Structure formats: structure tokens, C-alpha cells
């Protein structure tokens, strides 16, 4: 007859629950895997499957009950770590959508928007297009696998314990968020530069020929220049996205390392 003590049962629950909290928080906040169009059952099943795979190799504290004050603290701590790591990758797609938003406004397509169920808001069509390209590039570059690998390594970099997360990790996350604006500007710079020159030329044309209806002539010109520039810049978009994704994965690992450093 197999007998299981309450201490063993508590240790098994803790060994499964604490890693599950970090993994589930990352999946909920990460791009692609955290898409609202993916059913919740699939997300929970994926988190449980990853937990079963990585849990045997995770160093766990002993004699900590999940329902105790220390157990609740560790549970909240794991959720914060997972959210921070997932939010790091989410910012990459925010930069791409911001670049599309800037480009769409310059092209005069600010009124052309679709409802985005992920962000529960209306997104310009250029931002939607660039977001789809970023998602395809993310999957083709195995960004989701690198993200899960960094998550698995984070249990060694910042083990499950009662240690308070370091503020340096959250500062790194904030600094990474500030660099996203520069990445968005770099992605949108070809369109912004070409359309700025186009608008400058249209302004000179309006001054030289005041009787010209600039709204009837300028709108098709800006659209044409914008789409041509977008088509010419697409081959250079993939290398830049690859660089940003690799930088995001490195930032995830750096945040996990800094969590335990005080």
C-alpha cells in the first residue's frame, strides 16, 4: 500500500504551483502566446506542460506551504517575474505597431483603422500590417522558443525562494522600454523621411501655384510614395526585427539575473 504524508503532498504541490505561476504569467503577458484569440484552456495546458517538463530540474525551497504567508509571497514574486519577462518581449511588438502608427499618420491613413482585439483598441492599418509581419518574423526566427528557453534558464538565474526581487531588474525593464521608442523611430524612419520630403515638395508646389487643390493632388501622391517606400524597405525589415528580438531575449535573461542581485 502506498502512503503519502501531508508533508510530501505539500512539497509536490509547491514544486508544481510555484513554477506554474511564473510560466503562466509569462505566457499571459508575452506576444503571440499571450494573444487573446488563443483559448484560455490552451494557454493553461501549455503552461502546465512546460511546468511538468522543467519542474524536476528546478531548485525548490523546503518546508514552505503554498497557503502560508511565505508561500503567498513566493507566488506573488513568481507572477511578477513572469510578467516582467513577458512584458519585455511584448514591448518589441509595441515598437513595431508604434512605427506603423507613425507611418500611417504621415501617409494620411490615420482614419483607416481596424479593431485590435489584443489591445482592445483601434489600430491603423499600417500598424496592423507591420504587426503581422513582426509576428511572422518572430515565429520564423524561433523567437517563441528562445523566449521559453530564457524562461527555463531564469529558474537557475533567480531560483524560487523568499528573496525580494531587486529593483535593478525593474530599472533594466524601464530602460528597455525607453529604447523601444528609438527602435520604433528606426523602423519608421524610411517612411517618415520620404514623406517629409514629399510634403516639403508639395508645400513648395502650393506656394508656386496657389490655385492648385493640394488636398486633391497631395493625398494620392503621399499614399503612392508611402506604399512604394514601404515596399522598398521591407527587405531590410527582417534583419532589424531579428536584432531587436535577440536584444529582447538578452534583456529577459539580464532581468532574471538581476532579480537576485542586491
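Q: What amino acid sequence fits the structure above?
A:
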Amino acid at each position: 500500500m502506498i502512503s503519502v504524508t501531508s508533508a510530501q503532498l505539500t512539497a509536490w504541490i509547491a514544486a508544481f504551483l510555484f513554477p506554474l505561476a511564473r510560466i503562466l504569467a509569462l505566457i499571459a503577458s508575452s506576444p503571440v502566446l499571450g494573444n487573446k484569440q488563443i483559448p484560455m484552456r490552451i494557454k493553461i495546458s501549455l503552461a502546465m506542460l512546460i511546468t511538468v517538463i522543467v519542474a524536476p530540474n528546478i531548485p525548490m525551497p523546503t518546508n514552505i506551504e503554498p497557503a502560508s504567508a511565505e508561500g503567498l509571497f513566493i507566488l506573488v514574486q513568481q507572477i511578477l517575474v513572469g510578467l516582467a519577462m513577458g512584458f519585455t518581449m511584448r514591448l518589441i511588438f509595441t515598437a513595431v505597431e508604434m512605427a506603423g502608427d507613425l507611418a500611417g499618420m504621415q501617409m494620411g491613413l490615420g482614419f483607416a483603422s481596424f479593431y485590435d482585439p489584443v489591445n482592445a483598441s483601434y489600430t491603423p492599418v499600417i500598424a496592423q500590417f507591420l504587426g503581422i509581419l513582426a509576428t511572422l518574423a518572430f515565429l520564423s526566427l524561433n523567437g517563441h522558443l528562445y523566449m521559453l528557453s530564457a524562461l527555463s534558464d531564469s529558474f537557475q538565474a533567480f531560483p524560487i525562494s523568499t528573496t525580494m526581487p531587486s529593483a535593478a531588474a525593474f530599472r533594466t525593464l524601464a530602460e528597455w522600454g525607453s529604447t523601444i521608442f528609438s527602435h520604433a523611430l528606426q523602423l519608421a524612419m524610411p517612411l517618415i523621411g520620404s514623406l517629409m520630403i514629399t510634403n516639403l515638395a508639395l508645400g513648395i508646389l502650393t506656394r508656386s501655384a496657389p490655385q492648385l487643390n493640394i488636398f486633391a493632388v497631395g493625398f494620392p501622391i503621399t499614399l503612392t510614395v508611402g506604399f512604394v517606400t514601404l515596399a522598398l524597405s521591407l527587405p531590410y525589415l527582417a534583419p532589424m526585427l531579428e536584432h531587436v528580438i535577440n536584444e529582447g531575449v538578452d534583456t529577459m535573461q539580464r532581468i532574471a539575473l538581476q532579480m537576485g542581485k542586491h
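Q: And what stands out in the fold?
A: The chain is about 75% helix and 5% strand.
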